[in-house]
Amino acid sequence: MKFLKTIFLVGLLVLISNNATGQDYNKWSIDLGAGVHTIGVPLSADYFASPLGQGNFGVRYMLNNKFGLRIDLGFSKFNESKGTTPFSSNYYRATIEGIVNIGNVLNFNSWSKRINLLFHTGGGFSSLNTLEPTVNGGDGMVNLLVGLTPQFKINDKISLFADFSSIIHFGQGNSIDGGPNPTSRETNVSMFNTSLGVNIAIGKKKQHADFTSEEIIDDKIVSELEILKKRLDSAEVQIEKLKNKEFVFTNELIITELDERYVKKGEKISQDGNIIDSNVDFIKELLNRGYENVYFEVNKTTIQEGSLNSINYLRQFMLDNPSVNAAIIGYADETGSENLNKSLSAKRAKKVYDMLVAAGINSGRLSYAGGGVDASVGKEARPLARKVIFRIQ
């Protein structure tokens, strides 16, 4: 028993661990941010860019409380600094990033419940569209992004963040101001973004993966295992009691137990175990309407084996209800003469009558008669005509 209990608890530990790490926190979130940018590549002569005007929108999914994925969209608006040569460009970016929750990896939860740090990196595509002084029709390029995102938790659904990201471009043909790129097309550290924003958790769970540490998960596992251990200990005590208890089973005991368990709503049980106000009328209806009949072999008084249950059903019902009487009526199919069928139907009724009397039913509570031919069924259903029916009185 102890060995089995140990195996059971170990199995539960694995299941609870998987459940806790997979389902006890929200995995989806939305990131909204805006801020400033710094251009990392030289501009054309006499051009200087304003640092204002960039925003980003991301949808993030955490695979667990340490690693996740994000689709991030970014936009930057480039204009000249005040008093310098005018230009205007729009920059569009889309990246797919991997996320590492450094806070959970390094267990920030041990010293703060609100501060966290994410690392993200990934790649995608960018387009630089200059509008002034020239229109370039869009300069497409591949991007690589690396960044750090400190977080501050406001509540279980919302946290604020500051993001610091560096974007490297491959194959950039134009400078930000629309002039030719003064550096190699192969690699350009084109810009640095600094953003402030809000992270919104999506889901019905209390916590988000960002702020769910292994310590919290472990505490939940320990708590659930303690509850399960107490239940197992209690079950062991009950099992020992049952092992040491002697039981004597009789048919009457089993029937009484079933009556007490499955008595219908509205019925009552007396102290001696009998049902008071039982649904006798319901059982009478079943018998009188032919739900329980006895069927016979062709031109014989031999009862089909499957019909013995019907005889026993009537016997048990009459034993349970001493005031009930029963009429037994036999039938035959249309084959044979009328006199032969009348005699055969009476013999079939007498066969069932004798069996019930032999099984303990007082003969004064029973009567039998031959009903002759049952013409209510067609030729294809003649086996259903070779029968005995009951009429409860």
Notes on the protein architecture:
The protein has 393 residues and is an alpha+beta fold. The protein folds into three domains: 25-211, Porin (Beta Barrel), CATH 2.40.160.20; 247-276, no CATH class; 279-392, 60s Ribosomal Protein L30, Chain: A (2-Layer Sandwich). It has helices at residues 2-23, 102-105, 214-244, 251-262, 280-288, 308-320, 338-358; strands spanning 25-26, 28-39, 52-62, 67-79, 88-101, 115-132, 139-153, 158-170, 188-202, 207-208, 268-269, 275-276, 294-295, 326-332, 366-373, 387-392. A hairpin with an 8-residue loop joins β4 (67-79) and β5. α1 packs antiparallel against α3. The radius of gyration is 43 Å and the shape is elongated. The two termini are 57 Å apart.
The unreliable regions are 10-22, 261-266
Number of domains: 3
Order of helices and strands: HEEEEEHEEEEEHHEEHEHEHEE
Give the proportion of residues in helices: 25-40%
Named CATH topology of the largest domain:
Porin
Structural class: alpha+beta
